[in-house]
Amino acid sequence: MERLMLENNCIRIKSVAVIGGGLMGHGIAQDFATSGIPVKLWDTSEEKLTISIENIKKNMHFLGQNDLIDDVVELITPVSVFEKAVTGSELVIEVIKEDLPTKLDLFKKIEKIVPDDIILASNTSTFIPSLFADVLRAPERMLITHYFNPPYIVPLVEVVKSDYTSQAIVNKVVDLLKFCKKTPVVLDKEIPGFVANRLQAALLRESISLVNSGVANYEQIDQIVRNSFGRRLSFAGPFQISDAAGWDVISKIAEIVWFDLDNSKKLPKSIVDLINSGNLGVKTGVGVYDWDEKSSDDFKDMLLRGLIKINKRI
């Protein structure tokens, strides 16, 4: 325990509640606890919480952190009683399903329990913080902390504030994230989907368009991205790469390509048909690829090991 309970008297946030113990929630709780921050982890049942703790142990075993498992788990308090979970924590992070009415109801419920100086955050991937602020009594303490999967490996956290959010609150959260060895980036302006998901969405939309236009199939697109610019993006962003290439070169490419890029506003029929037929990807065994337990596990293993290697090199 002493290895994890670092001298954190320099940080103002010393306790966190994570609301939702699913894929992202248990990983966020793990990330805080690994940095010595006590965490209350809430979910709707003791059974779900047991699964969350077991997943944390598996994650740490995969990371080669077996010697820290007991200390990390000791810092995580599983709580199935909602009022107990949010009471006494300095920061409450919501990590439930991506449904706005459900999230808003949750925050209204939290605000009835906690005092106005408790910081409220959402891990939403898309909803701007103003939507939450509009239903809160104390909107100045609300912001977005958008983690990426898996949150205990991927360093970035997009921090998104509304016009109401106190700069002091932003500073406290950023200080905490830096203490946990994350890379917090505070957006200058709120926008649906923030930055990373908008960039990913643009790439995905054009990728689907290229398939539907008969230019290349799904596997060819994945091969092209993995074996070309995808490798560079682990080490440099688009503006660094463009500076290196030269904007005269980039402008020539843009003049030819940009006018022809897909700009549709709706999901293409090919993807709608996949969804309507229940072919959702790994979770159902079929998406654009076929998946079984072995191929799914192999893919996840490959991805996690790759992310760990990148973290060590950067």
Explain this structure.
This protein has 314 residues and is α/β, with parallel strands linked by helices. The chain has a domain at 8-186: Rossmann fold (3-Layer(aba) Sandwich). It is 47% helix and 11% strand. It has 14 helices and eight strands. The chain has an eight-stranded mixed sheet with strand order 3-2-1-4-5-6-7-8, with helices on both faces. Helix 5 (100-111) links the parallel strand 4 (91-94) and strand 5. Mean pLDDT is 95; it is low at 2-10.
CATH architecture of the domain at 8-186: 3-Layer(aba) Sandwich
CATH topology of the domain at 8-186: Rossmann fold
| Assigned CATH superfamily of the domain at 8-186 | NAD(P)-binding Rossmann-like Domain
**How do the strands of the widest beta sheet line up side by side?**
3-2-1-4-5-6-7-8
Proportion of residues in helical segments: 40-55%
Order of helices and strands: EHEHHEHEHEHEEHEHHHHHHH
| General form | globular
In the predicted model, the low-confidence regions spanning at least 5 consecutive residues are: 2-10
The first-level CATH class of the domain at 8-186 is given as Alpha Beta
Q: What would you call the structural class?
A: alpha/beta
Average pLDDT reading: 95
Content of β-strand: 5-15%
Q: How far apart are the first and last residues' alpha carbons, in Å?
A: 29 Å
Question: Which radius of gyration do the C-alpha atoms yield?
Answer: 21 Å
Please give the count of helices. Answer: 14
Number of strands: 8
Report the major sheet: 8 strands, mixed
